[in-house]
Amino acid sequence: MMRDFECKNGVMMIAxxxxxxxxxxxxxxxxVCDEARIRENYRNIHGAFSRYMDTKIHYACKANTSLAVxxxxxxxxxxxxxxxxxxxxxxxxxxxxxxxxxxxxxNVSDKELKEVADLGVMINIDSISEMERxxxxxxxxxxxxxxxxxxxxxxSDKVITGSKGxxxxxxxxxxxxxxxxxxxxxxxxxxxxxxxxxxxxxxxPFLDMMxxxxxxxxxxxxxxxxxxxxxxxxxxxxPYKPQEDEMDLNELASEITDMIEQQTDIKxxxxxxxxxIVCDAVVLLTKVNDVKDAGTKKYIGCDAGFNTLxxxxxxxxxxxxxxxxxxxxxCVSRYxxxxxxxxxxxxxxxxxxxxxxxxxxxxAVYNAGAYGFSMSSNYNSRPLCGEVLVNDGKAxxxxxxxxxxxxxxxxxxxxxxxx
Length: 419
Ligand SMILES: *Cc1c(COP(=O)(O)O)cnc(C)c1O
Fold this sequence. Notes:
Helix content is 27%, strand content 24%. It is an alpha/beta fold. Strands 4, 13, 14, 15, 16, 17, 18, 19 and 20 form a 9-stranded mixed β-sheet that branches. It is globular. Pyridoxal-5'-phosphate (PLP) binds next to α10.
């Protein structure tokens, strides 16, 4: 089931703090992050798998790279899956040591490879080209390979990454040759990795992928390469709708670890959840600026648009919305919840029953912690919004809202245009 929130005097409460007070204190729109929930999600997924075998969680930080969020996960003992040098350096800044970070880039430059290698971060190689280039840059580096398992899963075609022909990974028919070549090149070969996609809700694709991996592990062993870990990527979905089922983590964990233990001698499993850890820990609060009855449709016009949360516009993702200051009140009519961006594709929610809106109401957008702030933009010259961390009824600003002046800070106007 989707996570729900406590109601106090008709107001939505987030970790003991009223949504109305949060907006009064920190402005709107604002991402509100519940610290305890991040810790709970981390412990849930780590616990589910480590009951069965040695498991390392490498939080896929592209879901949410806020430094405070990274600090929480550093304290929990998490590792990191980073997809760019920017993410690697952000995680180092947040206190992760290089040995806790794995770099999984795609189509990366020699310059970036060198920077990552010089920092002492393990590299999960995505292509034969990348392997040959890394061999010249850091010949004895610790590596693994991302393979294309030929199995994909995800909430949208845009986020399926593991299917045959995908842009990611070493194609299946080339995997064995690539490991053999890596051995000749002198790399320290540690593991094998695959990532099927993001937000899938069923266990089967993970099992199909794992069968491909365990078969490869045994073929690779015949080359005289003993791998230390299998990394099964991320992609564990969460419910975005009230009655939607959760993935059965225990079933996933017991079946996956069974396959590994029965068919290989691998002792360590790595998991790279992003969404699972942060998604339902964050709510986006956005104020109602405008209310319109367009005849065929009624609109609630908010101050957050696809500049703030792009998932509905980009993937047609469903985000549950509620009226935070009329929480649990009777719903009277159907509305489209839309934003301030000048595009008709700018929406947060279509056709939702909600209480009668007035200007100044506060809409809460659920499940905004993964691919929310981290995908936000300045489109329409709207500054990025702020973020607040709530714990035990106390709220702290963890990101100041950007200012309009900051939109211009990297721009230069050639002198001749100033006349
Ligand atoms: C994005 C990504 C993940 C995380 O996906 P989630 O759906 O957020 O769990 C894990 N591994 C890699 C390589 C990724 O690119």
